[in-house]
User: Fold this.
Amino acid sequence: MPWFRKDHSPLQPSEQESRVPEGLWIKCTSCKEILYRKEVVQNLSVCPKCAFHFRISARERLEVLFDAAWEEFDQGLVSADPLAFRDTKPYAARLKEGRAKTNSWDALVSAVGELEGLRVVVAAMEYGFIGGSMGVVVGEKVTRAIERAEKERLPLVVVSCSGGARMMEGTLSLMQMAKISAALARLDEAGLPFVSLLTDPTTGGVTASFAMLGDLILAEPRALIGFAGPRVIAETIRQPLPEGFQRSEFLLEHGMLDMVVDRRELKKTLVRSLQLLMD
Ligand SMILES: [Zn+2]
Assistant:
């Protein structure tokens, strides 16, 4: 009989539900107010009482931004599971689950369409697909979105919402950081603007590459933005972290962001910024 037994049950995520929950009436994650769900959704998933921003999916994001229908591209790119990776379950099973949950083949939707009549390439990350992690497909789709913007001489907006690089694809995920950064440099040489929008959460390899490379970097209120998570940092430096650490407002105060924008003002702000940058 072994002396020690390993407990194999996976850790439960400690995070609270930050998407708008199902049901007719919902409770705000932040102010605990009971709200009529329909009213919250109509308010772009922002709490009408306290302005808490619920997390929205990539397609909901495109709906918030585009005037009308948009053209989605590179829809069918899928991960080849190059390492045949397996943790508590096979990576292939995680991909399948993500697909069923989000109706997307990976954690990013790229599209071209109009914002108040201005044609823009928008790539939005999907947190519901393996925590919005960046693997080969996300990296390739962001790169192609950049290249499309360059080719058609359009401005680019990337909406980040990610737990970071996708560990199930190992170093191939990390390579995406360099690939995307190089493509962004070419876009810059072509004189085309890139606006980066950071939403809750933007962390790890995504923060360490394209999210922080915008000509203009915007963020939604109270979004968690950082490289390593606050708990890891607190344990490493063995010191309590300041109030509001790694939240949008804190980053703005410390010069890491250009603007914190309420979702209800987002489209207007983006259009104004892009027009200024395109001149
Ligand atoms: Zn609220």
The first helix runs from residue 37 to 42.
